Amino acid sequence: MSRLNVELPGLNLKNPIMPASGCFGFGREYSQFYDLSVLGAIMIKATTVEPRFGNPTPRVAETDAGMLNAIGLQNPGLEKVIAKELPWLSQFDVPIIANVAGSLEEDYVAVASEISKAANVHALELNISCPNVKTGGIAFGTIPEVAKQLTRKVKEVSEVPVYVKLSPNVTNIVEMAKAVEEGGADGLTMINTIVGMRLDLKTGRPILANRTGGLSGPAIKPVAIRMIYEVSQAVSLPIIGMGGVQSAEDVVEYFYAGASAVAVGTANFVDPFVCPTIIEELPPILEKLGFEHISECKGRSWKQHEPFAHYRA
Amino acid sequence: MSRLNVELPGLNLKNPIMPASGCFGFGREYSQFYDLSVLGAIMIKATTVEPRFGNPTPRVAETDAGMLNAIGLQNPGLEKVIAKELPWLSQFDVPIIANVAGSLEEDYVAVASEISKAANVHALELNISCPNVKTGGIAFGTIPEVAKQLTRKVKEVSEVPVYVKLSPNVTNIVEMAKAVEEGGADGLTMINTIVGMRLDLKTGRPILANRTGGLSGPAIKPVAIRMIYEVSQAVSLPIIGMGGVQSAEDVVEYFYAGASAVAVGTANFVDPFVCPTIIEELPPILEKLGFEHISECKGRSWKQHEPFAHYRA
Amino acid sequence: MMQKEFCRIISQTEIAEDIFELSVKGELVSQINAPGQFVHIRVTDRWGPLLRRPISISSFNKATKQLTMIYRKEGQGTALLAKMVPGMELDILGPLGNGFPIEEVSSGETALLVGGGIGVPPLYELSKQLAAKGCNVIHVLGFQTKSTVFYEQEFLKNGETYVATVDGTYAAKGFVTDVVDRLRFDCIFACGPTPMLKALEQHYSDKKMFLSLEERMGCGIGACFACVCKKADDPLGVSYKKVCSDGPVFRAGEVVI
Amino acid sequence: MMQKEFCRIISQTEIAEDIFELSVKGELVSQINAPGQFVHIRVTDRWGPLLRRPISISSFNKATKQLTMIYRKEGQGTALLAKMVPGMELDILGPLGNGFPIEEVSSGETALLVGGGIGVPPLYELSKQLAAKGCNVIHVLGFQTKSTVFYEQEFLKNGETYVATVDGTYAAKGFVTDVVDRLRFDCIFACGPTPMLKALEQHYSDKKMFLSLEERMGCGIGACFACVCKKADDPLGVSYKKVCSDGPVFRAGEVVI
Ligand SMILES: Cc1cc2nc3c(=O)[nH]c(=O)nc-3n(C[C@H](O)[C@H](O)[C@H](O)COP(=O)(O)OP(=O)(O)OC[C@H]3O[C@@H](n4cnc5c(N)ncnc54)[C@H](O)[C@@H]3O)c2cc1C
Ligand SMILES: Cc1cc2nc3c(=O)[nH]c(=O)nc-3n(C[C@H](O)[C@H](O)[C@H](O)COP(=O)(O)OP(=O)(O)OC[C@H]3O[C@@H](n4cnc5c(N)ncnc54)[C@H](O)[C@@H]3O)c2cc1C
Ligand SMILES: Cc1cc2nc3c(=O)[nH]c(=O)nc-3n(C[C@H](O)[C@H](O)[C@H](O)COP(=O)(O)O)c2cc1C
Ligand SMILES: Cc1cc2nc3c(=O)[nH]c(=O)nc-3n(C[C@H](O)[C@H](O)[C@H](O)COP(=O)(O)O)c2cc1C
Ligand code: FES
Ligand code: FES
Question: Which of C42, C45, C46 to mutate to test the interface with D (most CBs of D within 10 A)?
């Protein structure tokens, strides 16, 4: 009996572990290491209408327990993703969550309506939070009304459930979550990266050509946990949590906070086997902690626990 | 000839290194390790009108390359700080920056007007950004108009220059900085901690009794650098930078970003000698990098460098 | 006076399951003034983990400048510590805090030392010093299970020693408090889990008693206010004591535990 | 096929100031298919530092399953690497990327190998293989200063070797490009600082030339788009090559450097 299967809107997951968007390309590289069918799902790299080159290099810089990236949504464009990448991925028994990005509302709508038709795309992840693109973007991720409106538009055209990816670079994340819930989102994914910068000691200049970049990795985990804790109590949408996940213990911590599944980003670069390793290590850890199923961990940080459960409702 | 002296409103510093508020108490403990007169300045623990006990324990939790704290502004209260702590500190040849906190505008005004009269208090640091107090607080640090108004009120009563300590937990830090500049601030200190949380693997509950806490340490350095980079270009106030400073190289990076002085917080817990060590190691590093004086590093990340300087103005 | 010093590791041995005995040599040993003080250890010269770890001094010898600690391999900090080998240097801040007041028990009186799990170590130096000054020393030591029992023989040298294990796999089954009920003594010294300390405080409020507390720490020296506890005479007020610099040992009834 | 493997360190020597030669043994050596490929090394089992470090393979021996790297102690990652000693295990991902195409030079033809600083190491295996197949190999190696010169004798065994130091403290003073002007050859292979590669590309656009590029990397395997460069035939467009998986070696003129 599996301790790990999870049901989310559009997603029937054999386990709640999936690589995070942008940290796994379209899966080709990691398929050299293991069978991608072991994964709960795959969040593929952001797709835009047109192909994008992204930002100049250097695009990554290391920080203490983290890294900055400013890739700038490089991707081969909608047409090629649909013609090449998704069909290639269909050889694996794994649902795809397509990360949808753009500069204008029309862009998101265009990508969403097309990509959601692909047979193996089971959900969309609306990327309203990429810190590394200049135009548009920022407003979608930081102004509740704008986010709500965009969510609504995308929901109108999408053939699969829509998850909205929240930016941590806001004063009030709960407000953002509520807005996209009102906009009709089926779920949330959080968090995207925190805007940061590193300077070169010798030149004094930013290491990244884009100057600022998005901070990911273990450094941001406490911020993600806090935000999921807050948001999961305020909305009734399921949350796919991410930010610094490196181990099965981290996954449990995310579930405690209120997540229903967990994505792994930066850790793939450190250890290409990190996802299958976590999937293997989760059941014994649940066993040790006394849980029969991972879902029992969910929201434990704020829910009344057994034996007090009957005091509620 | 010193490479390190720095002039800021109210502060004539022999060097730009000072312990950050809340990480050095009122100096007594660290005076057992070294002569506090070597420091550029001391930012003392937040002072409120009345004595405060603060939050229940546990109050600290470790994270990757960082820590969370939820002390809750414990302090002996204005009267005792003025009667006991400041006089004791006056034995050292070091200017004091008094961290002023409260729940209501009146509280800030009351503390500021009194504490700014102390002979060795050369500047105030208006703490509008403590993430660990429930009442008030949050609005002061996140709503530009409210911050501006508070700054103005405190400026009216303070006998020394007023630095405002900015919270990183906002969508737009530049907006906040501009607001307090308009309110009459003489300088900025940034950043305070980022709100975060950790959960206990065994219980599922937050490790901190206060549940959330403020993230400090190396993990937040890239966020602080980015914010100082943005703010230093947008306002004309001097900035005392902080967040994860551990070494003389970090100090140079903060100056490059646009800081005019640097505070060291969490690192004092790791190494009680960190401040004097940095002060000692700065001159040789400046030498190696080819700077005659630390001020030459300032804003180098965004300023046109020599030999291009004459192209401007 | 506390110092920060790189002390050389003299020996490290796993004396029970996940329980390590670690001895180091350093000048700061000369500054120790009471059993029950602790040191604050930096387990890496990098930032993972960031904070120092507080560990009690379980015994020391001023002549050889050595001090010994006993710790349980728990999380990432103690796991790194457990990998260190003799000859390496360890960044130690200490001695810290105020220890057990041995002057509170006179020669001929009986001291009861109650320890639970990793609360046992600081009692060892206390036991030695009390025995040396002619007190009767009785030890009640509680452990989870047989495999984690340590130092029973060492304590026996100084006086009667009762061991209890929670699961009954060794000696008496149950908690130390079950054993204490049967004993006669003039003064209690205890270190262990908070429920144990609370139970002792309640049941023997008539006795002279000193309890060593634990709290999560930042600085370890009194500067950061991480480790405060309320004073018992002002439970709703602002009075406080710091576990790191006022404690870790308090007279029972002094602070709220 | 690349692998992730814990390889055992066989030897580590400081062969010039802050320049280390590190040999390891592992199954992944059998997968190396050309000189100029690299490995991606995790220098700690913790998160400080977080990312792997890309280091070129400077030579390898499939029979002994050993590969050698030469690196400069620079920042925190290589500083940790430099502390490791034989017997320890190193977490290596590799072999990665596409190396130098030795088939582009026929026996009897002359290959010019130009290396600058820590761009020199990958040329060593190339030099050996070209010499072994009967090509004339000429080396031009540039270093900052005398104390950082390495492997001159090793390269000499395979062919003429010219050394230049920027400050003139050893051999010719100046840049490698100054030396190259005087030489005759059929094909250039180069690795070193970008300005050096650019200069070669400009001055010898008529020659067959292969350049090994460097770029900051995330994954090292082609998944993260950290290390892309533009294709030269579409400098304003979206065409790209990844240094990690399409390179690090490119034919001159293929990508914008
Ligand atoms: C005054 C004092 C004396 C102590 N003496 C001993 C001793 O002699 N032997 C022994 O085995 N243990 C002792 N402890 C407990 C010891 O400090 C913790 O077991 C240790 O810090 C755990 O660190 P870790 O890296 O293994 O765990 P982690 O879980 O990685 O630690 C994370 C953070 O929590 C803190 N922490 C975790 N558990 C505790 C705890 N129980 N008390 C305080 N902080 C904690 C750590 O210091 C660290 O900051 C003492 C604690 C205090 C306060
Ligand atoms: C394909 C390739 C092959 C290389 N081969 C060699 C070699 O054989 N010998 C050698 O000494 N060096 C080589 N380098 C450079 C080497 O990767 C860097 O010197 C090293 O990563 C610096 O790490 P650090 O921890 O010392 O420095 P830090 O400054 O701590 O590094 C911080 C971050 O920046 C990255 N970084 C810093 N400098 C470089 C650089 N020059 N290139 C790419 N990333 C960098 C690091 O990988 C790390 O992610 C090669 C680089 C590449 C891309
Ligand atoms: C190199 C890199 C590229 C990324 N690209 C994307 C992207 O295209 N779309 C997106 O929504 N998030 C992107 N992200 C953010 C991650 O999906 C994830 O939200 C974030 O990195 C936090 O998780 P982590 O700490 O596990 O990496 C990217 C992150 C990294 C490090
Ligand atoms: C234990 C602790 C207590 C703090 N107390 C205060 C405080 O009283 N007032 C304040 O303005 N900032 C306080 N801070 C924030 C620090 O002054 C500083 O802004 C922050 O920690 C970032 O710097 P660091 O990474 O060097 O610690 C506190 C930080 C810590 C870790
Ligand atoms: S740990 Fe800082 S005051 Fe006790
Ligand atoms: S380093 Fe990730 S694609 Fe090259």
Answer: C46
Q: Is the pLDDT of residue B312 over 50?
A: no
- Residues at CB less than 6 angstroms from ligand 2: A 62; D 38, 49, 51, 53-56, 69-72, 74-78, 118, 121, 214-217, 248
Contact across the interface for A270 and D222, Cβ inside 8 Å: no
Which SS3 state, helix, strand or coil, does residue A280 take? helix
Q: Which atom of ligand 3 is nearest to the CA of A22?
A: 5
CB C197 within 8 A of CB C177: no
Strand order, beta sheet including D187-191:
D172-173, D161-165, D136-143, D110-116, D187-191, D208-212, D249-251
Q: What pLDDT score was predicted for residue A112?
A: 97
- Going by their DSSP bridges, the two strands A66-69 and A17-19 should be labelled as unpaired
In the reported structure, the alpha carbon of residue B307 is separated from the centroid of ligand 2 by a whole-number distance in angstroms of: 29
Residue C40 has phi, psi (to 5 degrees) of -120, 115
Confidence of residue A309 (pLDDT cuts 50, 70, 90): very low
Nearest-angstrom CA–CA distance, D213 and D119: 9
* Pick among A63, A64, A246 to test the C interface (most C CBs inside 10 A): A64
* Residue pair B60/B215 in contact by the 8 Å Cβ criterion: no
Measured CA to CA, the distance from residue A169 to residue A195 in angstroms comes to 7
* Tokens matching residue A73: 């949504």
List CB contacts (< 8 A) between B62 and chain C: 49-51
Q: Would you say the ipTM is above 0.90? A: yes
- Mean pLDDT on A257-285: 98
Share of chain A above pLDDT 70, in %: 94
Question: Which of A21, A85, A140 has the most ligand 3 atoms within 8 A of CB, as the residue to mutate?
Answer: A21
Report the alpha-carbon distance of residue C213 to residue B160 in Å, rounded.
Answer: 43
**Nearest-angstrom CA–CA distance, B243 and B259:** 12
Q: B-chain residues within 8 Å CB-CB of C78?
A: none
pLDDT digits (tens, 9 = 90+) for B88-114: 999 999 999 999 999 889 999 999 999
Residues B222, A257: C-beta atoms closer than 8 Å: no
**pLDDT over threshold 60, residue D167:** yes
Cα–Cα distance for residue pair C96/C242, rounded to 1 Å: 12
* Residue D241 parent element (H or E): strand D240-242
Residues of B acting as catalytic residues: 130
DSSP per position, C10-77: EEEEEEETTEEEEEEE-GGGGG--STT-EEEEE--SSSSS-S-EEEE--EEETTTTEEEEEEE--SHH
Residue A232, C-beta contacts closer than 8 angstroms, at least 6 positions apart:
A239, A257, A258, A259, A299, A302
Cβ neighbours of residue B176 under 8 Å, at least 6 residues apart?
Answer: B141, B142, B144, B147, B166, B167, B170
* CA C50 to centroid of chain Cα atoms: 23
Instruction: Specify the residue with its C-alpha closest to ligand 3, atom 6.
Output: A22
Q: What percent of chain C stands above pLDDT 70?
A: 100
Residue-averaged pLDDT of chain D: 95
Amino acid of residue A24? F
Residue C172 CA, chain-centre distance (Å), reads 22
Q: What is the pLDDT of residues B175-187, one digit of tens each?
A: 999 999 999 999 9
Distance C226 CA to ligand 5 centre (A): 5
- Binding site membership of B246 for ligand 4 (Cβ less than 6 Å): no
The rounded Å distance from CA A19 to ligand 2 centre is 26
* pLDDT tens, residue by residue, A136-166: 567 788 999 999 999 999 999 999 999 999 9
Question: Residue C29: pLDDT above 80?
Answer: yes
* Nearest ligand (C-alpha, residue C218): 5
Look at D206 and A265; give whichever has higher pLDDT. A265
Distance between CA atoms of A45 and A28, rounded to whole angstroms?
Answer: 12
What pLDDT does B306 receive? 54
